Protein 1
Amino acid sequence: MVTRWFGGILLGAGGLVRAYSDSVSQALDGARFVTWHRKRELVVSVNMAQAGRAEHVVRGLGYSILDTTYSATGCCITVAVADSPDGLATARAAVQTAFAGEAKIVEGRAVWSQ
């Protein structure tokens, strides 16, 4: 942040430009850039018998977990997967294999994730 404590004109336009340009350069030099990717939410629902291990299994598959909710009947885990036909098919197959075909999978909205 650049703060002007003096309201005069001693720096002049060129001095102000240099002061602001230097602060922007320093901020960009210290910035950390992160790439975000478009992903698709998949909501994985499992029954109570699978709920205890569900989050661990999904993390083990390498997917980012966005949300987990538990209810009296089971567990719903929202994960972010690649937003492409291949990415969705791969994720569905991996989850169904991990839960022996007992998981219900519903496709959700598009999201941006790291």
Protein 2
Amino acid sequence: MTEVSSLTGRLLVATPALSDPNFDRAVVLLLDHDEEGSLGVVLNRPTPVDVADILEGWGELTGSPGVVFQGGPVSLDSALGVAVVPGADPVGWRRIHGSIGLVDLEAPPELLAATLGSLRIFAGYAGWGPGQLEDELTDGAWYVVESEPGDVSAPDPERLWRAVLRRQRSELAMVATYPDDPSMN
């Protein structure tokens, strides 16, 4: 088996050609990627459920909107906390890439309150088995781009797909103008 170059910490941005409705215009932050598979969360799928309604103490630590995000189609009954921590690694947080990491939601929220730069809570995740993501990349389903800490807590998540593409310094910036329904063009 060939060695897989890790994409952990990078963004997968759905191409307009991606036909899976779970990932239409999705921006996925990869939390883990190796020869055993990949795991990430969709950053731009807010739900109407307030974090405070399901995770006591964590609601006041989340940014706006303070809702749970649908992290993907797998294990929707589980929760993942992704946060940006600008300084040293606090107890209850595990660095993934740069200043982005996972929060231990079993830890007392007050343990992390002073150190979190931003926090989002995700119900479920997106997962790929060994080689599955690489096949999707070969098929042109995803653009792979660098993440920025602000992507985790984008204040207008519905516009994140266009915003991430627009900031690229290549022809990808033009994809941001792709119409929602090309037949209406």
Protein 3
Amino acid sequence: MSSLQSEMLVEQKVANAQKSTGVAYLLWFFLGGFGGHRFYLGKTGTAVAQLIITIVGCFTLIPLIITGIWLLVDAFLIPSIIRENTDNVRRQARLEVALIQQG
């Protein structure tokens, strides 16, 4: 397999796994308190934490304030989370291609 074919395969895998910034922000806007955007972006642990804090916040005020601050911070973090995800997919695809070339 040539290096051009290898790179095309890597970029195809990256394109297939690419997360949409628009979808992430829509989920953040409509389901942010429930961690919808974090579930979409693959941050399941923190998404569950956000969901629990929001549910507990239905009974008291302090957790809702925490969720609100967290959502504000997430509005700025979404692009970097998507970039990190893309970099991880690219790194994994390059490893897979290297294994195929060795075999």
